[in-house]
Amino acid sequence: MTQGTATRLFKFAGCVELRQALDVHALDVRELRQRIEEVPAGSIFFHTFGYFLRHRVFTTAYGNDFARWAANEIGDHALAERLAVVDPFGFSDLDELREHLVTILQDHLRGHESERRVEFARGFHFQQSQVVEVPLGVTAQTLGEFRAGLATVDESAIYLHTVETRARQRHAESFADWVREALELPELAERFERIDPYLTTIERIRGRLLGLVDVALDEARR
Amino acid sequence: MSRIDDYRRVATPGAVDFILKLAEQVQGRRFLSVTGGRLGGGAAEALRTAVPILSELGVDTRWEVTGGDTAYYTTARTLQAALEGEERVLSDEGLARWVDMNGLNAKKLDLDADVTVVHDCQPASLVSARTGGRWVWRCHFDCSSAQAGPWAFFRRFADQYDAAVFGLPGSRDVSASRCTSCRRRSIHSPSAIAISRRAR
After folding, report:
1. What is the CA radius of gyration of chain A?
2. In chain B, positions 89-148, which contact chain A (CB-CB < 8 Å)?
3. Can you give the pLDDT at residue B181?
């Protein structure tokens, strides 16, 4: 692995999330299943992948809003656990993820005739969001410059260049793509892609990325 | 060292620089907030902190306050209480007075801005006097159990906004809201409330 100059600049960008309420609600698990089938794909994204952006500071026991609602509002910890182990990064697209969630809920409903129903205020209220990219003015053309940027940019940039770019088409480039294509470091890119963002925090992802870059820089110096 | 730089000591890496970049994005836009008073909690409390910081960031921000006679304040308070779900009696005369006084406020205040954010109930009918820019209603209170009659009255004003912004309960980030009146966009910010189907 050598350290060279990239064929194109990496441009760090942060992001802000503007949430939008949908007029779609579920007051029990049966309704949750129905609504998950109906809502726009952006809402599935919001309640699964988007969870990482909204829970930056500490790791929670749930990896998505559906699991959290099942535990906290419905009080069904078995269902919460089944939903919590759904890793959104394991699906090729949002419809596949949606289908998997529906299957879990269908299976669960078969064994549960009497469903707990909650009042409106405690219902599951579907949302979606617009993620607005904000160029940070920080660029990199070498791995060293990339490390410097990675260490100092806002954590929303880590989310954007890892989670968002992996799951949705974005203007911003993923860290792994740039390292592979512009720096021509496919092994490092592969290591980046092996970092599992599921059930961790953005700061921990930053830490792991920095660790991998440091190893690559050390190797390049030898 | 400016005040925004003070936050570098406690903010996560890059957070302050990110805010500076966000401020750059809105350079040249004029923002206006309108509330029913400069003192007290809720919107006024938030703006007392936010307006100086936004100004320091170079964002063109102003803050106007509506005023009126005793009947105006009484009706505005009663209307908000009814929208929060309390059983209150609102007279047609009182409501007409509230609308008229806000009409006068619209003539007195400088409402020329690219984005006008009107907070809560008291100044809400100012939107009828809008001449340009985007208008946003920022609801800081919980109107999930609004009384039907007062909501039907209030809705004629809420419908005139381009967007409405509601808070979310801090403990339950999934729960919340709909912009019942505004069939337009409702955006959440992480603070306080829920709008319910009852308030339709």
Report:
1. 20
2. 144
3. 40
